[in-house]
Amino acid sequence: MRSSKAIFFKQMKDVMKNRMVLIQFILFPVMAFIMTELVAKSSDEIPNNMFLTMFAAMFAGMGPLVTTAGAIAEDREKKSLRFLVMAGVKPHEYLMGIGGFVLLVSSIVSVFFGLIGDFTAAELLKFILILIFGSLTSILLGAAIGIFSKNQQTATAISVPVFMILSMCPLIAQFNETAEKIAGILYTQQINAVVNDFSVSAVKPVLIILANLIVFVVLFILAYKKKGLKG
After folding, report:
1. CB of 70 within 8 A of CB of 146?
2. How many CB atoms within 10 Å of residue 224?
3. Is the terminal CB of the chain with fewer CB neighbours within 10 Å at N or C?
């Protein structure tokens, strides 16, 4: 736990120094707030939470993924992981340290998203929990990408098309039935489904998100076995 705690605070310092990473976590809730207050609430034809749920789902598929992938790839590029391995840091401790901080920030952002929306108490809790669960799934996918990547440039090259697919598929699915069926296997589509209709049972979406999470854990394990943490 000491190793995970040290890596947690190291990641916190790195993020505070990196404005681009901070912007990723701030931009989506700010845009959601602006579009909700200035557009949705001023129109009788647009649901109050439309932009909020759209930006929230996009955030869950982008922010945690890109941040985690970039952080791990940076450590690989700078050979920081060599020293961590020499110090006896285990893969799960490293992942807990990096992922733990990203999940904490993502959880805070999820709460901000929830406070912007027009939700009942039960809906707010459901909204926040599904976003946090989705963020955790993104973190694990980002970890696998980070391990596979030699440097930050490679991580970005992989992350961009991945999060574009994860973020845009739910949006396209709203207008196309075929796209909706294909996107149904993606965790971001299930997040979108839950936050847009709280009357629907969350059991199936949660199970699909869990399946995504398990797949990404396997990817991380395979990436570690192939690449290791030594960079």
Report:
1. yes
2. 18
3. N
Range 30-37 contact pairs with CB under 8 angstroms and sequence separation of 24 or more: 31/55, 32/56, 32/113, 32/116, 33/116, 36/116, 36/117
In single-letter form, the type of residue at position 82 comes to R
Minimal CA–CA distance to 167: which of 186, 185, 181, 188? 188
Q: What is the pTM of this model?
A: 0.89
Q: List, for residues 190-225, the tens digit of each pLDDT value.
A: 998 898 888 888 899 999 999 999 999 998 888 877
User: Buried b / exposed e across 140-171, counting CB within 10 Å, b at 16+?
Assistant: bbbbbbbbbbeebebbeebbeebbeebbebbb
| Cα-based angle 98, 99, 101 (whole degrees, multiple of 5) | 75
Token pair in block for residue 34: 């602006």
Q: Quote the DSSP letter at residue 44.
A: S
Q: How far apart are CA 32 and CA 41, in angstroms?
A: 12
